[in-house]
Amino acid sequence: MPNLGTSIRIVTALAAAAALAAAGAGAASATPAKQLTTLNGAGSSLIAPALAVWGPAYTKAAGVEVNYSSVGSGAGIAAITAKTVDFGASDAPLTPDQASACGDCVQIPWALSATVPTYNIPGLHSGQLKLDGPTLAKIFLGRITNWDDPAVKKLNAGVRLPNLKITTVHRSDGSGDTYAFTDYLSHVSSQWASQVGTATSVSWPGGVGGAKNPGVAAVIASTPGAIGYISVAYVIQNHLDWARMKNSAGNFVLASAPDIEAAAQSVKTVPAGNKMSIVDPPKNAKFKNAWPLSTFTYVIVHTVTPQAQALRKFIFWALTPKAQRLINNSFLVFAPIPTVVLSAAERTLNKVHA
Amino acid sequence: MASIDTTSESARRPFEGRRVHLGDVVLQGVAGAAAAGATALVLLIAWKVVDGARPSISKFGISFVWHDVWNPVVGREAYGAASFLFGTAITSFVALLLAAPLAIGIALFLTELAPRVLRGPVTSLVETLAAIPSVVVGLWGILVLGPALRSHVEPWLHSALGWIPLFGPPSSAGASIFTAIVVLTIMILPIVSSISRELFLGVPAELKEGALALGTTRWEMVRGVVFPYARGGIAAALILGLGRAMGEAIAVTQVIGGGTTISWNLFNQGDTLASKIAAEYQGATSNLDVASLIYLGLILLVLSLGANIAAQWIVRGVARRHGVTRGGRA
Amino acid sequence: MKGAGEPSITIEPIMRVETRRQPLPPRERLETIFHVEGLDAIYGSKTALKGVSMEIYKNLVTAIIGPSGCGKSTYVRCFNRMNDLIPSFRMNGSIRYHGQDISGSNIDPVAVRRNIGMVFQRPNPFPKSIYDNVAWGCRVLGMKDDLDVRVERALTQAALWDEVKDRLKASGLSLSGGQQQRLCIARAIAVEPDVVLMDEPASSLDPIATQAIEQLMHGLKSEYTFVIVTHNMQQAARVADMTAFFSISRGEEGERYGELIEYDATEKIFTAPSDKRTEDYVTGRFG
């Protein structure tokens, strides 16, 4: 029996460490590139469907293989910081601490997409539910708790809303979708801005967390009355129902590629760090159909990297109209990047060298 | 020192001079190195964890343990472990409470009661449960188990036992502390039951015969002889299960729903130390965020250590009480 | 190991074998407690014992002797249905206990064992205190009144009381081997059985402890019926009133099985056996 005790001591002493080790395993699994003909990346799950198309296309065009692990924006940043990959991908710009930890990293906007409010209300199909920013914020603040609330009814004249408890669903891991979503709510609700704020991971006032997009989708699918937010490409590929949002021009829009592109038109100048927010674009005739939860998504690389040549070629290629068109269709819904952002992206990319 | 000496004198006096036996030296060296390596590894991990948590320790101090906020938003950062400690405690203890009778019952069934033809297959089946990766258990938890518990078990428990604060209003989503408890129960069941099974098998047949020969029934024999004999080991097995439950991260992250509210209602969402670390470590937004997550890990490490010491203490205590260590057998 | 737990009985010369045995009363005055008829004991396809028929008498010590593998342990374990624990075991024939056949599958072995106790080859005290080793059986079987008295009486009958009365709370496992075996005897008689089966009870004990056990059997004979398996012929000669000699026989196809060769008063078995095989065995020419 003393032997049993001894083995127990060893096993459980390591158990706690295992939890930490498991957390680090995702980043460690991506191995650094050994040959010049392979590029390894990891990060955002929002961009993952785009890279699934770009990868084979670029191999065909340039003979370079592109591997990508969809581990989430936060994990992508951790991976490029640790240099276990050649590029990271994130939907949220680097925070100051992340930027300093990453050292000579630059973030380059390379695709444009959106996150969408996804719901499970029996009898209500995609696009049948209409919401606006303040209402969405009140729902996630726990101030609107039932689907037959007058505020929701007012936006949905003619739609039969059930007497059903609302369950809000969010990402439990650090996520670019969370960043875009909370950024939007902070823009449209001063209470949200002061109480919760904008980040890839926040202190939620309530609701249920799910791990990654599939986790959130699973909770929504199994919970009548649930509402959450998921990348538009994932929503389309998995036939989930999503809401029309009222933008500042007063139009209810549905996150089509032109709607997202319209939101990006609000960018006039690109700041030095390429950090851009295009949620809730102001009222403007030019982008009256703008989807208010649009987001740029970034590729993050080290300025000095042995893979500089291959990385520059690949990212330049991804920014070409041809590559952008590959991911702009009814399944993927990535809108083309506006010219002003494109030139900023290329300027940044030119800094990357071996 | 190593004298392979065959002079005539030593041949006449064959037992003199301590010889060095190569095999023993190698064994001692390898075993010693392994033991030293394991100790060094544990110390290294502990030091790394303390070092990593240092920014958070110096900012929040020990009050980190009883504050229940967790806000990683840059500019309004505030961190505390209370809600996760609570989550870890309630999930692992209730899971253990559910798993213990089940696991011991299974072990008893497999060693004493089941027809011999059933023992092999059922044993492998239960042990296969341990081989399922936790991420798969978690997936099953969120897709199948969670909704089933929410729709069927939670309302029933609430209507029958709603006066107990633990069984408050059912959750609307399948993800809850309760789902995590059931998932953890399933995960620690095979560990506890297979150790218990080994312990029961280790009860000498002559002891069982001695009890049966008095005219006791099987149940009386099990209660009077098998349980007392295996008691220390079972207590240790339960603490091993508790350690497993406290440390499980991935599956819990998938089914517990998250949140920093401390609520006695098992059907609410929550988080544990391990699940919080697993969920957010890679997405940590600031250095303080990272340090605070590691601080959670440090607390978990201390808890595990405490559980271990308790296990040792129990095993030794029981052994002493029963005189097992005195080795009285002729 | 030794020392603290060693019995404090006076050490007598070992080989001064006592034969305080009373002369046997005539057979017709003896009360039959077991009537065994045509008993076969079979493990799976292997026959361990074949065609055993004999009567065991109340308040006598009956010894079962024979070479290793003759099935004497198997035989004695038939009386309290201990062989039921072996899944492939079955028996044919009958064992009538006070007239009732206890060998059938309709008989509850638990009830049989309440009347027929057993002491095993190796001392097997429970991992409990000395007191609880004796009291546990009484408690479980519902004999809860005057437990202290019962425990003291059983320990006294087993000639252990004086040695342990000051440390009843100590673990049963802290006793020496001989004390442990006497504790097991106390445990067996505390629940007031009718018969006590002893399966080589002294085989793992030193001569002093062996003698202690033989003496207590003598003392308890008036209250209990003992059936003792032993490989030690001197022991049988010392303690038994009746002795049954079992041996290994060969069947037509060369298969080996145990068989009862001769059963008679101990005196007769050791001095004037009627079977050549018995004579060979008791004179040491075989076995």
Summarize the structure.
Chain A is an alpha/beta fold and about 350 residues long.
H/E topology pattern of chain B: HHEEHHHHHHHHH
What is the terminal-to-terminal distance of chain B? 41 Å
Number of strands of chain B: 2
The total number of structural domains of chain A is 2
Number of helices of chain A: 14
Structural shape of chain B: flat
CA distance, first residue to last residue of chain A: 60 Å
Kindly name the structural category of chain B.
mainly alpha
Strand content of chain A: 15-25%
> How large, in whole angstroms, is the Cα Rg of chain A?
21 Å
- Main beta sheet of chain B, described? 2 strands, antiparallel
Q: Compute the average pLDDT of chain B.
A: 87
List the chains of the largest interface with their residue counts.
Answer: A-B, 64 and 76 residues
Uncertain spans of chain B = 324-330
Instruction: Let me know the largest β-sheet of chain A.
Output: 9 strands, mixed
CATH topology of the largest domain in chain A: D-Maltodextrin-Binding Protein, domain 2
Order of helices and strands of chain A: HEHEHEHEEHHEHHEHEHEEEHEHHH
Write the CATH architecture name of the largest domain in chain A. Answer: 3-Layer(aba) Sandwich
Characterise the protein shown here.
The complex is a heterotrimer of chains A (354), B (330) and C (287). In chain A, 42% of the residues lie in helices and 18% in strands. In chain A, helix 12 (308-319) packs antiparallel against helix 14. Chain A has helices at residues 2-29, 48-62, 73-81, 96-102, 133-141, 150-155, 176-188, 190-195, 212-222, 232-237, 257-264, 308-319, 321-326, 339-349, and strands at residues 38-43, 65-70, 87-90, 105-120, 130-132, 167-171, 208-210, 226-231, 241-242, 244-246, 252-253, 294-302. Chain A folds into two domains: 7-111 and 297-349, Periplasmic binding protein-like II (D-Maltodextrin-Binding Protein, domain 2), CATH 3.40.190; 115-287, D-Maltodextrin-Binding Protein, domain 2 (3-Layer(aba) Sandwich), CATH 3.40.190. Chain A starts with a helix and ends in a 5-residue tail after the last helix. Helix content of chain B is 71%, strand content 1%. Chain B has helices at 8-12, 22-60, 82-113, 116-131, 134-161, 177-201, 205-213, 218-247, 250-255, 273-280, 287-321; strands at residues 70-71, 78-79. Chain B has a two-stranded antiparallel sheet with strand order 1-2. In chain B, helix 10 runs antiparallel to helix 11. The longest helix of chain B has 39 residues, at 22-60. The two termini of chain B are 41 Å apart. The model of chain B is unreliable at 324-330 (pLDDT under 50). Chain C has 287 residues and is α/β, with parallel strands linked by helices. Chain C has a single domain, classed as Rossmann fold (3-Layer(aba) Sandwich), CATH 3.40.50. The longest helix of chain C has 14 residues, at 177-190. Chain C starts with 31 loop residues before the first strand and ends in a 5-residue tail after the last helix. Chains in contact: A-B, B-C. At the A-B interface, helix 1, helix 3, helix 4, strand 6 and strand 7 of A face helix 2, strand 1, helix 5, helix 8 and helix 9 of B.
